[in-house]
UniProtKB/TrEMBL annotation:
This is Uncharacterized protein. Gene3D superfamilies: q2cbj1_9rhob like domain (2.60.120.620). Pfam families: PhyH. InterPro entries: Phytyl_CoA_dOase-like. Residues 1-20, 312-344 are annotated as: Disordered.
Amino acid sequence: MARQNEKTKGNRFPAPPSSRHFATAEASNIKAFEAICSQAATAEEYPLAATIQRNRGALQDEWYRFLISGPGVFVTKRLYRDRRLIEAANAAFASVIEQERESGAAAKGDHFASAGKNDRSWNSFGKHGLADPASFVEYYSNPATVYRITAQVNNTKPGASPQVCHRDYHVGFQTAEAAAQIPRAMQVASQLLTLQGAVAHSDVPLESGPTRVLPFSQTFEPGYVAYRRPEFNAFFLGNHVSLPLENKTADVYRMANLLQISSPFGKPMESVDAVPLIEKRWDHLVTLYEARGLDDEVKAFVAAAAEGYPFPTNLDSNPPRNEGMAPESEQDNITTSLTENRTREEAVEALKKFVARSVA
């Protein structure tokens, strides 16, 4: 404790380094990076892995440690137990991809592959909701509150090239020069704003090139500045935990729905318009509500479809409510429409008016 007090000088946080930016020497310390990534996760550290049953809080605590200071990546099996749901989502994705191909919208490429190499559909979240409202409701009714989710479906074709070594959204989308100018505290904090995941929508054999990851590398603080350096890329290529993301097969199309689950305190990767989604599936949502009330699944769906964090807003026309300091959110508006038994037209009109008065 004495050492800790000496380091923090009575403050909650340690004294910051002399420079607010990562120094070149820190970002090029490959030995420190190698030591971090040479760690091994043990069953003693994460005892609930593969054994947890009906103990959500303890499981969340373990996942938290896994992501913050542990390997930084884990795989869960059978979170979607109904294969029919995955097949329905696949059909919706196939329809969207085909429509975009016919319209020419598919010829845009993505972060790592040029146009035509893979089938990438941006905002698969919103497009799924419009293409198949019933499966969309079931697919995204997962428990949480004010998070914001966006998604992009990616169908990797046979012969596709592997991804390059990279760090992802937010700071990973900046140039090396821009990233170097972001203060170190913000670089570290930004990692906590978006959780990236993926749902496998097909079998993913190793020869089809599943994602390469480097456990523990997220704990290397200068990582956003360092990952482009050749020595870090070489270490990654020699130590990642799966085969290269290169589909070497002749006939396996590897499909995954990539999820970006954002904290309400950060900016999501894509914008989501709740109005057409609610309009398209209001009747289905009402049916669920009439059968179950505001149960976990109904609340979870509303949380996925609409914004739960009420800021930014126009506080003149959407002031804080009497029961708290926060104004009304999209989720509050939709929940009110449910509990007041509004028709689809009434609910959509109420949501449109809310969105309009939230703008300055």
